Amino acid sequence: MAEQQPKEISGLQLWQWRQAAIAAAIAADVSPTEVDWLLQEIAGLDRLALRLESFKDWAQIQLQLPLAELDLLWQKRLKERLPVQYIAGVTPWRNFKITVSPAVLIPRPETELLIDIAVAAIAKSKNELGLQQGHWADLGTGSGAIAIGLADALPEATIHAVDYSSAAVAIAQINAQNAKLSDRIKFYQGYWWEPLESFKGRLSGMVSNPPYIPSSTLSILQPEVVNHEPHLALDGGDDGLDCIRYLVETSPTYLKSGGVWLVEMMAGQADAVQEMLQNQGSYCDIEIYTDLAGIERFALAQRL
Ligand code: GLN
């Protein structure tokens, strides 16, 4: 019988591993701060213990996985550019700890703003529309981050979260449960609007971070992204706009009058997306919002 590897190690052992991991990170041009973030997640150490190295004297530290396994994954981080979030199995996003695996895109900090933009759009809308109490869609939910952010910010709304990947839906469901929001988020495996046929004309809003990278650009993304994150969540076709174009065309059938249309996009796509929305003819109040880096990142419109 294979001996089970211990998950408890001495503080000294972990201190030694940390020293080596930091040195290897620097040599591999990976930020050494990732080591401490990972140890917070895997070893439950806090920042002060890491900073003061006080854990070095502790008799025992409980790891979530055997040190040998952690070390193997860290080698993968450095040699294969495996994102550190996939090793930890989590990423911080807004006020949540979102579970992630290679089946889902790692939610990005800039995407956090989508929720604030949706909330601000509701605040500006006419009260009698009742947008904050209505049904909202998160199309291409992935880890479920946007659905969870919306459910949290809109305590009276119901969120319908759709993804084509059943593995993604399974992770999104775990995240909704962890956030204690699963009673107001319904999950569906399916193609964009397809599972939401019965909501035609009734949606208060549609929020999405769709794939928007042009296919030809994928290969020049960081190896962390192109070699490890799901291409289904990234590849937006020839000009990167296939999915956004689809969402512009199809959403008017599903949104009620005054309903919110809100998507994330890539740097350089704002003009094209604005034009699509205008030409479609069913939208008004089209606005482009920048992210915190000043990049035109979000397009907002209202169903006429
Ligand atoms: N923001 C992601 C990236 O920079 C792309 C996400 C997407 O295509 N929606 O890789």
From TrEMBL:
UniProt key word Transferase: yes
NCBIfam families: hemK_fam (TIGR00536), RF_mod_PrmC (TIGR03534)
Annotated InterPro entries: DNA_methylase_N6_adenine_CS, HemK-like, RF_glutamine_MTase_cyano, RF_methyltr_PrmC, SAM-dependent_MTases_sf, Small_mtfrase_dom
Residue ranges occupied by any Methyltransferase small domain in the UniProt entry: 129-213
HAMAP family: RF_methyltr_PrmC
CDD domains associated with the record: AdoMet_MTases
EC number: 2.1.1.297
Binding site for substrate: 209-212
Gene3D superfamilies in alphabetical order: Vaccinia Virus protein VP39
Highest rank taxon of the organism: Bacteria
Binding site for S-adenosyl-L-methionine: 140-144, 163, 192, 209
A GO BP entry: methylation
PANTHER family xrefs: PTHR47441, RELEASE FACTOR GLUTAMINE METHYLTRANSFERASE (PTHR47441:SF3)
GO molecular function, one term: nucleic acid binding
Gene source species: Fischerella thermalis JSC-11
Function recorded in the entry: Methylates the class 1 translation termination release factors RF1/PrfA and RF2/PrfB on the glutamine residue of the universally conserved GGQ motif.
Keywords of this entry: Methyltransferase, S-adenosyl-L-methionine, Transferase
Keyword Phosphoprotein annotated: no
Name the record gives this protein: Release factor glutamine methyltransferase
Stated family: Belongs to the protein N5-glutamine methyltransferase family. PrmC subfamily.
Catalytically driven reaction(s): L-glutaminyl-[peptide chain release factor] + S-adenosyl-L-methionine = N(5)-methyl-L-glutaminyl-[peptide chain release factor] + S-adenosyl-L-homocysteine + H(+)
